[in-house]
């Protein structure tokens, strides 16, 4: 199969309308042709209405001129009718609609182009903290970031996945001291299993904290250990490395289960920037962006003020000489622009960090690291809520472990799949339940508008009906079963002389819009647009299948419909893939 970009019919018609506008009124060059799908024809354009107003002419006059401009010589347009006060109803030739289907089927990438080719995009996502359990708060960043990484990679971008692990800080000195004083307490993956390492470390950290608060002598030893770590004492640094490595194993096992793209190559934690913090600070001071204040170095915002009307500040270097979260993020943006030469930077974290990133971006602009040639976005998202509608906590009020959450969803999916397929052997049931359960978690997240909060409800998100991952997986599996019954034909000849039924026509247009949706995601960074598109596609398929027999149809209609099924199945599986969701052939 070749790789050829197939221009969506909607985009093609839009450019024809644009050209017609220029021919009719050259002064309107560049105007939006306002082409949409329509239920009166295939497409409609409302351009004449607003453009006529703009140049002070009657809309129906302009509309009728555009109609005659459009009616000449394009193989795609069958008919144009002006209607109402300046609408154009545009009907396409049957042949052009079928040709589109055939062209997409013939292409391994379904005709999707690479509009982001040549762009380097750094996506900062997931970023759990070493020696701490991955919790519900890391779910959204991990799956939203991963989906964006997949979409941009498909669109041709050079994507750098940056997993900004929280692997540095004074807490490690305390933890290392405690671990050394309690050699009997196990925490290595080899001793207790990969999934238990970080919870063991988390427990040791809490115990260390308690002793630190209660026992001044331990607190002193811990402080000495912090200094040892920062000054590169070998045994201390080795121990720190070991803690990081064990934690990374645990993160890796969650990533495997979630099926995200992150690998150890993408781990570029906070510690990576240590060596750059002095230079970053000096540069900010030299450029007059940062100032000394009370022994600390800070950047005072020129735009944002705090509650007492004083400027909001970023802490570049603390009074004690230490560096923190702000310092490191200033270093990330400097490094990613200057060293990685990124064209676009995305930081995927929850909405509560909006101010932090606003200040980081402002400082980076003032320092000249960020220019107009670089796009930067804080890809903010809402909170996952528990059944009580409040931020999700365990019954005891603790943080919810990500693994437990996934287990709950897989159990819910297992029950639902078993009910539908009572004869499924246990091993197969387990495999499908895992794909359905994980898919359901990801879909529930990615189908919600990013900025909104949503409730984590395993039984709702694994339902077979409604806008769920399971519904889409099922829709895909059902089409695959039709194709199995058709004998899994490899390529089928599409006869462009057939007139598609209305439901078939609607489905074909929906299939043809797939890459427009992907382009929108590249713009808006909103994967829910893809989720909703796939849901619409699955429903359009159902309407088609209810009214248009496939296997029982006569040739050449039968072959054409098999081709429709093929493109529908491939588009669904492909789209689910971009959401990081499996598309099993049976469910
Ligand atoms: N480690 C942080 C946390 O768990 C998230 C880091 C996000 N990325 C960044 N560059 N600040 O909340």
TrEMBL record:
<comment type="similarity">
    <text>Belongs to the class-I aminoacyl-tRNA synthetase family.</text>
</comment>
<keyword id="KW-0436">Ligase</keyword>
<keyword id="KW-0067">ATP-binding</keyword>
<dbReference type="GO" id="GO:0004814">
    <property type="term" value="F:arginine-tRNA ligase activity"/>
</dbReference>
<dbReference type="Pfam" id="PF03485">
    <property type="entry name" value="Arg_tRNA_synt_N"/>
</dbReference>
<keyword id="KW-0648">Protein biosynthesis</keyword>
<dbReference type="Pfam" id="PF05746">
    <property type="entry name" value="DALR_1"/>
</dbReference>
<keyword id="KW-0547">Nucleotide-binding</keyword>
<dbReference type="InterPro" id="IPR005148">
    <property type="entry name" value="Arg-tRNA-synth_N"/>
</dbReference>
<dbReference type="InterPro" id="IPR035684">
    <property type="entry name" value="ArgRS_core"/>
</dbReference>
<dbReference type="Pfam" id="PF00750">
    <property type="entry name" value="tRNA-synt_1d"/>
</dbReference>
<dbReference type="InterPro" id="IPR001278">
    <property type="entry name" value="Arg-tRNA-ligase"/>
</dbReference>
<protein>
    <recommendedName>
        <fullName>Arginine--tRNA ligase</fullName>
        <ecNumber>6.1.1.19</ecNumber>
    </recommendedName>
</protein>
<feature type="short sequence motif" description="'HIGH' region">
    <location>
        <begin position="128"/>
        <end position="138"/>
    </location>
</feature>
<feature type="domain" description="Arginyl tRNA synthetase N-terminal">
    <location>
        <begin position="11"/>
        <end position="92"/>
    </location>
</feature>
<dbReference type="InterPro" id="IPR008909">
    <property type="entry name" value="DALR_anticod-bd"/>
</dbReference>
<keyword id="KW-0963">Cytoplasm</keyword>
<comment type="subunit">
    <text>Monomer.</text>
</comment>
<feature type="domain" description="DALR anticodon binding">
    <location>
        <begin position="472"/>
        <end position="587"/>
    </location>
</feature>
<dbReference type="InterPro" id="IPR001412">
    <property type="entry name" value="aa-tRNA-synth_I_CS"/>
</dbReference>
<dbReference type="InterPro" id="IPR036695">
    <property type="entry name" value="Arg-tRNA-synth_N_sf"/>
</dbReference>
<keyword id="KW-0030">Aminoacyl-tRNA synthetase</keyword>
<dbReference type="InterPro" id="IPR014729">
    <property type="entry name" value="Rossmann-like_a/b/a_fold"/>
</dbReference>
<dbReference type="InterPro" id="IPR009080">
    <property type="entry name" value="tRNAsynth_Ia_anticodon-bd"/>
</dbReference>
